[in-house]
Amino acid sequence: MRDDGSRRRFLARRWGLLALVGALAPSGAAWADAANCHLNKVAEMPVRVERNQPIVEADVNGTRVRALLDTGADVTVISQAGAARLGLEVSSQRRLSGIGGTAALGQVKLKKLVAGGWWSDSPLVHVVQNENFGPDVEMILGQDIFAQYDIELDFANGAVRFFEPKGCDGVPLAYWAQDYAEAALRPTLPLGHRDIQVRVSLNDRETWALLDTGFTHSSVLLRTAHLADVHEDGPDVTKGSEFHGIGKKRTPTWIATFGSVAIGDETVRHVRLNVGDFGLFGEPDRVNAIGMFLGADFAKTHRIYVANSQGKVYFTNVGRPIFAPGQREADATPASDAKAPAAN
């Protein structure tokens, strides 16, 4: 992490962010008051990480449902089996595309959706014919929920927090830390997406990365890896786990070492990452294409504040290793006798 420590410590003291952390009241009083800045907490959603998946206990029309918190999903969806169990009437069939192919998609209007202190009356959610959400998971909470607010992902403390800042332009919002990293959010997204995208550098090759907590392990698109001079026949390559999303197709991956990965102010060296042909996201050598997914492994080892209000992401490291590639135990033998560098 590049350290502008003295400047940031000065800013933190000047704005009084640290002194007011303990002033949060259950009613949602301001977390911070820097001049005219008020960082008001709207709600808090409990979350726990299971098998590298952030899981939320939600209530749909008063019935408990296990949901995956997926910042890479544009919309909130419920599985067809879950909709049937809940007695929901599905309408408006069409097709939805994802990494695993396509699946039938319908819509249903709920009476109420609740997750911790967050709720929505009469939300319209999508129903997808898919059984791959995870063990006993029937729902995915997507960006149609999270993009409406500033969001703090604090998996280490089991919480996702929703904020509505007022008058905070130019104020650093990593209120819990004196030193932090930051990255600019992608200002414009294709096709009206609400993704959390930041610029990253892989072996000094720049690309866009999607913060996607639906990915259990951070991964690089195949062509992006090639452009970063990382190839399948490298001396330390091993076979990785298979990935799937919407649809039934599974994408195989392999694991290789990247000399450096830089996300905003944070740089990690000798990083082992999954690489796969996630073709849905286009050619990564094009300016507007995604070349990497920052997955749940990255999210659980950082405390992250997505400042949609400022077009920035603030984050601090809270654990190691930062990246933990998904690897099949049966295929863990390296392709050669060469030793892999220590992972981040």
Automatic annotation (TrEMBL):
Coiled coil: none annotated. Residues 65-101 form the Peptidase A2 domain. GO terms for molecular function: aspartic-type endopeptidase activity. Residues 1-32 form the signal peptide. GO terms for biological process: proteolysis. Keywords: Hydrolase, Protease, Signal. This is Aspartyl protease. It comes from Nitrospirillum amazonense.
